[in-house]
Amino acid sequence: PNFFALIPAAGSGSRMGDELPKQYLSLAGKPMIYHALRILCSSSRITCVFVVLAPGDEEWLRHDWSDFSGKLEVLECGGATRAESVLNGLKAARGVSSIGDDDWVLVHDAARPCLAEMQLDKLLDELADDEVGGLLAVPVADTLKRGDASRRVEYTESRENLWQAQTPQMFRYKLLVEALSMMGGVTMTDDAGAIEALGLHPKLVLSDARNLKVTYPQDLALAELILRNP
Ligand code: C5P
């Protein structure tokens, strides 16, 4: 089986409080998504990288993506939710590549620009022979409080065996399409969640907190620092 990557980038990024969707916010002199594309496209182990845009995305056309030519396929088929964008992208990928049922798909967020080659390789190495697939993740570091509606602590959650899910998340093409198709209206915030809903148990591959998700404006400065000091 071959490895393919898919980046859903059809979100509006409303939590950043910005007009520009967050994948295009400037980070170390490039649109944020450039960094995720660079790491995935430069891996010789990955056959092709699909990026899923919102239909009619004009911002994409304002930038130069020629660094990735030959390796990148742009699919303008984003949906209303992340899961829908991934599913639409997977279906469209059939028409523009040789991707097959047993091939691996690495779904990665445009909002994780600091993925390192080492983590990417570790994911591929640890899961290449896996039955189910899995994801990069880190053990939870903070103490977790369960709060009630009036913001009073009900109790402290044990953080034993609790992990923060990252991306890439890696599953076989056919299984992932099947899992996402079954979701219906249920909202899942990651792809592993859809696989879990089938009763399967994705593998947690130990990652690094530097593979952070840019969600709020203050995350941008930290991401830039990490990119400049790999
Ligand atoms: O909003 P959030 O940070 O959860 O988005 C995660 C990723 O999913 C982003 O890369 C975003 O562009 C993508 N997304 C998408 N289609 C949507 C919503 C989000 O491709 N409808």
Description:
The chain has one domain: Spore Coat Polysaccharide Biosynthesis Protein SpsA, Chain A, CATH 3.90.550.10. The protein is built from six helices and eleven strands. α2 packs across α4. It starts with a strand and ends with a helix. β2 and β3 form a beta hairpin. The protein is an alpha/beta fold and 230 residues long. Bound molecules: cytidine-5'-monophosphate. The site of cytidine-5'-monophosphate (C5P) has 16 residues, from β1 and α2. Keywords: Isoprene biosynthesis, Nucleotidyltransferase, Transferase. Its EC number is 2.7.7.60. It comes from Nitrosospira multiformis. It catalyses: 2-C-methyl-D-erythritol 4-phosphate + CTP + H(+) = 4-CDP-2-C-methyl-D-erythritol + diphosphate.
Strand arrangement, largest sheet? 5-4-1-6-10-7-11
pLDDT < 50 stretches: none
Oligomer: single chain
Mean pLDDT: 94
Bound molecules: cytidine-5'-monophosphate
How many structural domains does the protein architecture include?
1
Tally of alpha and pi helices: 6
User: Span from first to last CA?
Assistant: 31 Å
Classified by CATH, the class is: Alpha Beta
- What string, H for helix and E for strand, traces the elements in order? EEEHEEHEHEEEEHHEH
The CATH architecture term is Alpha-Beta Complex
Helix content: 25-40%
Q: Which structural class is indicated by helix and strand composition?
A: alpha/beta
Shape from CA axes?
globular
CATH H-level name... which superfamily? Spore Coat Polysaccharide Biosynthesis Protein SpsA, Chain A
Examine the coordinates and then state which fold CATH places here, giving the name of the CATH topology.
Answer: Spore Coat Polysaccharide Biosynthesis Protein SpsA, Chain A
Largest sheet: 7 strands, mixed
Enzyme class: transferase
Site (Positions MEP for the nucleophilic attack): 159, 213
Protein name: 2-C-methyl-D-erythritol 4-phosphate cytidylyltransferase
InterPro entries: IspD, IspD/TarI, IspD/TarI_cytidylyltransf_bact, ISPD_synthase_CS, Nucleotide-diphossugar_trans
